[in-house]
Design goal:
Mean pLDDT: 97
Distance between the termini: 58 Å
Shape: globular
Structural class: alpha/beta
Number of helices: 13
Oligomer: single chain
Radius of gyration: 18 Å
């Protein structure tokens, strides 16, 4: 079976740099995949794509060395299994708040007897190899998102679920539920302390901790703190920022 490069990085004690795809386009996905990201996540929760386009975007990412991953819209077993059968090498599941929800998520990603995933890796067998079914459970990455006060309160129970590879912290929603304020950085003391506690809990349970970063400097800070998969901005943010900078530079140049 094809190696999961993100797992390899973790085995070496390194962090993975993860890109985030909101734009429903195979072309923009392919362009992003050729920029050196360790992995790329097709975001079906807040991204603009449907299932068919998401699968085509996974194909585009698969033309490169970047690991194809997906965030599902919700903890829905059918969607999780379909994306895995389509070749996603990792699943990020939003809004996990209890041990039971995490068990349901992980179970959908693992074949019996470790889980209840149905056997039918249609495209995954083409992408990963004919022995996919024999090795998928030890290759596919499962990341449960902790991004609410309830999820934070149940962090030990969530992170103790067998078969869970790690947690992914959604700073925006976590801040919203904890403080009532919006924002994606970790500049306030409440969120900063929560990030430290979640990281320490993950390390105690032997699972990976991942997180969103508001920008490159924030990404560097979070990796240095010990987070092992960090997503820096989204394709939409990157396009908007680069476009605005170019427009402003030209306007300033002719003013």
């Amino acid at each position: 079976m094809r190696e999961n490069h993100v797992r390899k990085l973790w085995g070496e004690g390194k962090a993975a740099l993860n890109g985030w795809l909101h734009i429903p386009s195979t072309w923009s996905a392919e362009v992003m995949a050729n920029q050196g990201w360790d992995s790329l996540t097709v975001d079906m929760q807040h991204g603009m794509m449907g299932m068919e386009t998401a699968i085509q975007m996974l194909q585009a990412v698969s033309t490169t060395a970047a690991v194809p991953m997906a965030r599902v819209n919700w903890n829905t077993p059918g969607d999780i299994m379909k994306l895995l059968d389509a070749g996603a090498y990792g699943i990020v599941c939003p809004m996990i708040e209890t041990r039971e929800e995490c068990e349901a998520f992980v179970g959908a990603c693992r074949y019996p007897p470790r889980g209840y995933r149905s056997l039918g890796p249609t495209r995954a067998r083409v992408y990963a190899g004919a022995d996919y079914a024999e090795h998928a459970d030890n290759t596919i990455i499962t990341l449960a998102m902790i991004e609410t006060q309830e999820g934070y309160d149940n962090r030990d129970e969530i992170m103790s679920v067998e078969g869970l590879d790690g947690v992914f912290i959604g700073i925006g929603d976590l801040r919203l539920t904890m403080t009532g304020q919006a924002g994606l950085d970790s500049s306030d003391s409440v969120i900063d302390a929560a990030l430290d506690e979640l990281l320490a809990t993950a390390q105690r349970h032997g699972v990976i901790a991942g997180v969103f970063a508001a920008g490159p400097e924030h990404g560097v800070e979070l990796i240095r703190r010990g987070y092992k998969i960090v997503s820096v901005m989204t394709d939409t943010n990157i396009l908007a920022n680069a476009s605005a900078n170019m427009v402003n530079a030209v306007r300033e140049g002719i003013s």
